[in-house]
Amino acid sequence: MSGLFLLLWGRSAELYLNHFVRPLSHLSASLALGATAILVYSFLTDDFSVAYVANHSNSHLAWYYKVAALWGGHEGSMLFWALGLTLVTSVVAARPHHPHRFASRTASVLALLSFGFLLFILLTSNPFERLLPAVPIEGRDLNPMLQDIGLILHPPMVFGGYVALAVLFAGAVTALGRGHIKGAELAWLRRWNLLAWFMLTLGNLFGSWWAYNELGWGGWWFWDPVENASFIPWLLSTALLHSLYLARTQNAMVLTSLLLCLGGFIVSLVGTFLVRSGIIQSVHAFASDPQRGSGVLILLLATALPALALLAWQAPVMTRGQTLNGQSRHWLVMVGSLLLVVAALSVLLGTCYPFIYAALDLGSISVGAPYFNTVFIPMVLLAALLLGWVIMPPGTATGLRVTLLLLCCAAATALTLYASSARPDWMWMGLVSASWLTLTLLLCGYHHWQQSRFNLCLAPWLAHLGVAVFVLGATVLTHYEEAVMVRMGPGNGRALAGYTAVYEQTVNVQQRNYQASEAVIRLDSKGKQALTYIRPQRRTYLDDRSEVSIAGVYHSPLSDLYISMGPAINDNQFLVRISHKPWVRLLWLGGVLTAFGGLLAWRRSRTTHYQEYNG
Predict the structure, then answer these.
(1) Residue 326: C-alpha distances to residues 114, 341, 379, 440, 516 (Å)
(2) Residue 405: which pLDDT band, with cuts at 50, 70 and 90?
(3) Which residues pair with 554 in a beta bridge?
(4) Contact (Cβ atoms closer than 8 angstroms) between residue 525 and residue 544
(5) In the sheet where 574-581 sits, what is the strand order?
(6) Dihedral sign (CA 208, 153, 298, 181)
């Protein structure tokens, strides 16, 4: 139906078919919601005749993990994604129709995307496949690494971001198919991009926090392919926020904005292909079935190639926006947006390069943190420096002197910390960028406060302040973290960063699905005995005998002392890792501030959008 609707754009029959878009979209969403509810019910009732339930749950699993197991594996996660697509299709179709039928046409493109996902699920990833008549008595249990609150928080946010990116993709295809886009429709795209950006920000933040707490050694970012799969769309969505600002206020970068709308969803499909096809090995990978990989690749090509071909066909006839010149700071926003795009492409290249290298029969190669840090970090820090210049209050008589003063303050702050660092490398850039951005934001906030306009700029101010706080925390944590790996048993102690960890005893813990060796470690600080007790564990899950290290963490206002247990060396000693993580709380604080700023902007755009859209 939707494919026929697309073919009849601009024809008289479109008016007739337009009446069916809304009810059919609602029907599709209802059926997808019903299928998802049935699968969740199968988990809650331990229906192990369903293969997906038998492979990702058991009768001892807590009910909230049974619900979260819906997206804990390949088949269920694809159904969850398809559910999101059908729901937003219904939401878009339900909106009052624009005179040029923008909403109904966008809903038809979304319906085609939903059809592609549902067809992929039916042919390669059926979550309702049965094990009849040989129904197992007990399930295999959910992956122990997934039995964490991170599973409840992280994947829904990432998939929600992907779904919102699909709406942007559909809106861009609609605008390109028509040959032009209006200001109200740019506002509509901005609102959906704010929602996508908010959800991807929280998704990446929760994923980082999950890795920090769950993996047992305190790392918060690994440049893993699965992490990059959600991080690259976030970078493109961030660039799109700024290009849409220029498109709406300056009538510039309109075509670039449409390209980014297409690119955000396309790279989310590229990431899905990478982590589900088995061509890249990852601790987070969902599946390695070549049939599924081929299915995702076909879905990717069927989505990307027609959209990019439409862009190439329509680009010469699309109305061009005005050219930005050096007399305005808006050209700096454009440069910053392009830097974010280049940064996203550099991460994508580093993620894909190993399998491209192998496909060319050149051997095997791995791309790790040294590449990503060297290529990515300078571009992002330069974008932060440009941002500080852009938000400097205009029209100030002493603007040049204030700018020089702020630069001197930022440089002095950076040099003070830089001088005491044993690992300088890019540290000075991070400190200068964070200090410069923070100082310019404070000046900008004070300027708007004096003019009683601070409430109007609160959302972007919070979002950019969160970026500055995050950059500062990441820079200090990376260069001042201390860690030791020691053999410890009852009676052993080790001092680190002003704390002394004393191993008092080992306690055996028995739970229904795992057994663990738990270390009771007393933490003393200077001048104070028995500050607290930390209890890290080394768990062995009974189903597959896998071992997982559960860290014990002492939280101070800004920093953490992080202790994790490695394998047993003998009956009385374990390999123990003790880490001091300075200013690690700034990572989470910065991420929350950034996401909250995006949420405020989305809420504020809600009323404005409908006024423009219906005006």
Answers:
(1) 44, 21, 21, 21, 64
(2) low
(3) 561
(4) no
(5) 482-488, 574-581, 560-568, 552-555
(6) negative
Give per-residue pLDDT as tens, 441-480: 888 887 778 777 777 788 999 999 999 999 989 988 988 8
Q: Structure tokens of 71?
A: 């997206």
Contact 430, 472 (CB under 8 A): yes
At residue 255 the predicted structure's pLDDT band, cuts being 50, 70 and 90, is very high
Label residues 97-111 b or e (16+ Cβ within 10 Å = b).
ebeebbbbbbbbbbb
Identify the three-state secondary structure at position 553.
Answer: strand
Report helix, strand or coil for 560.
strand
- Note whether 276 and 74 are within 8 A (CB): yes
Higher pLDDT, 304 or 143: 304
Residue-by-residue DSSP string for 73-134: SHHHHHHHHHHHHHHHHHHHHHSPPPTT-HHHHHHHHHHHHHHHHHHHHHHH--TT-B--SS
What value does the mean pLDDT take over residues 20-28? 87
d(CA 220, CA 227): 11
Chain-centroid distance, C-alpha 588: 14
Q: Give the mean pLDDT of the chain.
A: 84
Beta bridge partners of 353: none
Q: Which residues contact 422 (CB under 8 A, 6 or more apart)?
A: 479
- The count of residues in the chain is 615
Rounded to whole angstroms, the maximal C-alpha distance in the chain is 85
- Quote the CA–CA distance of 225 and 380 in Å, as a whole number: 20
Measure the CA–CA gap between 252 and 248, rounded to whole angstroms.
8
- The structure's pTM equals 0.91
Q: What is the pLDDT of residue 22?
A: 84
Backbone CA torsion sign across 600, 601, 607, 610: negative
Which of residues 108 and 101 earns the better pLDDT score?
Answer: 108
Nearest CA to 563 out of 604, 523, 594 is that of 523
Instruction: Give the C-alpha separation, 123 to 112, whole Å.
Output: 16
Q: What is the pLDDT of residue 394?
A: 62
Q: What is the pLDDT of residue 577?
A: 93
Looking at residue 454, what DSSP letter applies? Answer: G
Tokens of 454: 């601070």
Residue 316 · residue 179 · CB < 8 Å: no
Given a cut of 60, whether residue 56 has pLDDT beyond it is yes
Q: Is it the case that residue 253 has pLDDT exceeding 70?
A: yes
C-alpha separations of 223 from 220, 282, 284, 362, 372 in Å? 10, 11, 12, 23, 7
Q: Which percentage of the chain shows pLDDT scores above 70?
A: 85
pLDDT band at residue 611 under the 50/70/90 scheme:
very low
CA distance linking residue 114 with residue 314, whole number of Å: 25
Going by C-alpha positions, the residue among 575, 570, 509 that lies closest to residue 542 is 509
Tokens 């923070």, residue located: 438
User: What whole-number distance in Å separates Cα of residue 118 and Cα of residue 247?
Assistant: 35
Residue 264 to residue 271: CA distance in whole angstroms = 11
